Amino acid sequence: MSQNNYKSALDHPVFNILSQAAKTLDVECYVIGGFVRDHLLNRGEAKDIDVVAIGSGIDLARKTAQLLHEKPKVSVFKTYGTAMLRTQGLEIEFVGARKESYNRDSRNPVVEDGTLEDDQNRRDFTINALAISLNEGSYGELLDPFHGIEDLENKIIRTPLDPDITYSDDPLRMLRAIRFATQLNFTIEKESLDAIARNKDRIEIISKERIVDEINKILMADVPSKGFALLHKTGLLPYIFPELVALQGIEEIEGQLHKDNFWHTLEVVDNIAQTTNDLWLRWAALLHDIGKAPTKKFDKKIGWTFHAHEFVGSKMVYKLFKRLKMPLNDKMKFVQKMVLMSSRPIVLAGEVTDSAVRRLIFDAGDYVEDLMTLCEADITTKNPKKFKKYRNNFQKVREKIVEVEERDHVRNFQPPVSGEEIMETFGLKPSREIGVIKDAIKEAILDGDIPNEYEAARELMLKKGKELGLTVV
Ligand code: CTP
């Protein structure tokens, strides 16, 4: 096999069909972009395939569909001159090669026919502009006019054109550059990095949904801090997360310093990335301290305080999700809950009493383990002795959670005596007293005054009823 033959990338039988379709229509076609990049990086089997035709991408899609056994439906996007079909678990996107210029105020491209090289030129990065021929005679040959292979080897993110043009054509690419650098552990070449800093305000024309897609990918990387540090360095961070920018910096009053909560947060995110692949728990790590900026105060006696920052932070989560047009659903509520409870196990760690653990399980419910994972990730002390001490304390809390839950079952707490039973017993209509009795039972169970059992709860109900002047009917 010649050095630039990449037939091995074209193992899948669909590539032969694509080749036949192109031959029938007498157009050239190439597989390009992420599929080629990920194959060369051994990033596993890609499910998305981008195909560029030197001619009509839509016609090529239709012809390919005809030749495929199952005759898949072709979705056509006329304005963009693109088409898409799904076959055998793959999603194939077709585009006609373009010499493209963008309208500065929107992402809608003005499309003109172009050559393969024109098309490669207008792509975001050299590593995404690699194309493999599907044409008879050159099948499997790699076309790499911008030295994408070299950049892959040297782990460099570089734009094929002058970066100012590439980024201002489509400002989302600034985030894509940072996302790829983070996912692949590549370096953004200096000129490109400078261009991002120069064009940062253009991010404002990009939809929040697309921005969040990239942030999610950064968060799911092995070392997400790399991406956030780049967002910070290029000046993009204030456009996306002003709340995180506000955490940056160390203040000193009367010789007392507080830690830099921005860099601390990034450490926490990296820590949690090692222990969970849950995107929302990673979001919780990113946002767990955002309430610290607005609550920061200096007190002459106790030094720096961040009173109620967890509560304030959890309210900020809602505003942040809303601003970024993220779903305001149970995922958002989960992040809020994690932020709200983020200090609870820390308070516990000194002395782990059963009742405190019962309350923790009661309040955190099914998320108590996630909360522990967040708190463990929050240990960023560089003092090995302290680190070990905190870790051991949390380990004790975890053990106690298992022990207490096995005995008391408060995780999804159901009151052992129902409201109906209270009403029937005392002949009550819905009223305040029922709440008072139910609450007394719950509190007694959480405090460990009575076991979480029917008999004990009923006994307490009768006692409380008497105190309230009620009579059994
Ligand atoms: N592309 C581009 N500019 C963009 C988005 C995409 O030039 N803003 C080009 C790149 O050549 C890219 C290809 O379109 O490789 C496909 O884009 P997409 O599917 O979004 O990304 P992938 O590179 O496939 O990577 P991933 O799947 O990780 O997003």
Describe the structure.
This protein is an alpha+beta fold and 473 residues long. It folds into 4 domains: 2-152, Beta Polymerase, domain 2, CATH 3.30.460.10; 155-240, Hydrophobic Seed Protein (Orthogonal Bundle); 268-408, no CATH class; 419-467, no CATH class. It contains 24 helices and 15 strands. The strands form 5 sheets. It has a 7-stranded mixed beta sheet with strand order 3-4-5-2-1-8-9. A two-stranded antiparallel ribbon has the order 6-7. A two-stranded parallel ribbon has the order 10-11. It is elongated, with a radius of gyration of 30 Å. Residues 102-106 have low confidence and may be disordered. Bound molecules: cytidine-5'-triphosphate. Its cofactor is Mg(2+). Residues 185-244 form the tRNA nucleotidyltransferase/poly(A) polymerase RNA and SrmB- binding domain. Belongs to the tRNA nucleotidyltransferase/poly(A) polymerase family. It holds the Pfam family HD.
Regions with little confidence, pLDDT below 50 for 5+ residues: 102-106
Architecture of the largest domain in CATH? 2-Layer Sandwich
Using the coordinates above, name the CATH class of the largest domain: Alpha Beta
CATH fold label of the largest domain: Beta Polymerase, domain 2
The number of distinct structural domains comes to 4
The number of strands is 15
What is the subunit organization of this protein? single chain
Report the radius of gyration as a whole number of Å: 30 Å
Q: How many DSSP helices?
A: 24
The global form is elongated
SS class: alpha+beta
Spatial order of the strands forming the largest sheet: 3-4-5-2-1-8-9
Fraction of residues in helix: 40-55%
Bound molecules: cytidine-5'-triphosphate
How much of the sequence is in beta strands? 5-15%
* Superfamily (CATH H level) name of the largest domain: Beta Polymerase, domain 2
Largest sheet: 7 strands, mixed
